[in-house]
Write a structure and sequence with these properties.
This protein is of the alpha/beta class. It contains 7 helices and 14 strands. The strands form 3 sheets. A 6-stranded mixed β-sheet has the order 1-8-9-10-12-11, with no helix packed on it. Helix 1 runs parallel beside helix 3. The chain is globular and about 55 Å long. The relative contact order is 0.18.
């Protein structure tokens, strides 16, 4: 899907890694508050892994997340919604018809905030060749539909096993050498004043050469999200918690 020049708006909400599921339902209240206009973002940017498991062509995952899908689609009728696919939620265009969807192969994306450039990604776009090969295979629509058919035929053993595995994961672990890891990735080569990503759940912010880098906090950890501040402020984002 092609998109025109993307503008980042003052008052936009950014969130990532909510890992929404029946075991992590906290995102529902936040999205309902936006839907009811109790919270009023100018723009909603979902930076991947919003769902713990949502895959295009897999009806079982759509059924589990139907209410959330409906709410996001209805929000997209009155504000711009941008969705950067993650490694837990992909092939999403068949579910979100008014949302601007960016799959992994289209990331990072460039947005403009006044005269400044802001690069955004879920965070797994520059992994090694083995991970990239895995991503290409697992995102094959024909393979996904075959696995979905097999899974449905036998009572969802694959997805139930996946659910059990994901339920045991700790989404809030510290990556102790994270800054060293980030500096090895040459992210300042994108030529932006800001580079924002999720995926790693670290909530770390530091400078890389001429670029201000932020790894956003996972919403799954204490329901944190970020609001784009006024252009008059030195900092781009304000961290908030939803309760």
């Amino acid at each position: 899907m092609s998109h025109k020049r993307l503008q980042l708006k003052e008052g936009a909400y950014l969130l990532c890694d909510a890992h929404y599921s029946k075991l992590r339902p906290q995102l529902l209240g936040f999205i309902e508050a936006i839907h009811k206009k109790e919270l009023r973002p100018t723009q909603l940017i979902l930076m991947g892994d919003i769902f713990d498991a949502l895959f295009g062509g897999v009806a079982y995952t759509e059924m589990q997340n139907r209410k959330m899908i409906r709410l996001i689609n209805e929000i997209a009728l009155f504000i711009e919604v941008i969705y950067l696919e993650g490694n837990h939620d992909f092939l999403l265009s068949e579910y979100f018809h008014k949302v601007k969807i960016f799959p992994i192969e289209s990331q990072p994306i460039l947005m403009h905030y006044g005269s400044e450039k802001v690069t955004l990604a879920h965070g797994d776009f520059d992994a090694d060749w083995k991970y990239k090969l895995y991503c290409r295979i697992i995102r094959s629509r024909s393979l996904v539909r075959f696995l979905s058919f097999f899974d449905t035929l036998f009572g969802h053993p694959i997805l139930k096993k996946l659910d059990a595995y994901l339920a045991k994961k700790d989404d809030c672990n510290e990556f102790k050498t994270f800054e060293e890891f980030v500096r090895s990735r040459d992210l300042d080569s994108y030529g932006s004043e800001y580079f924002l990503e999720g995926h790693f759940h670290q909530n770390k912010h530091f400078a890389i050469e001429n670029c201000s880098y932020s790894n956003l906090a996972a919403f799954a950890c204490n329901q944190r999200y970020f609001v784009v501040k006024s252009m008059q402020d030195k900092e781009l984002l304000e961290e908030k918690s939803f309760s």
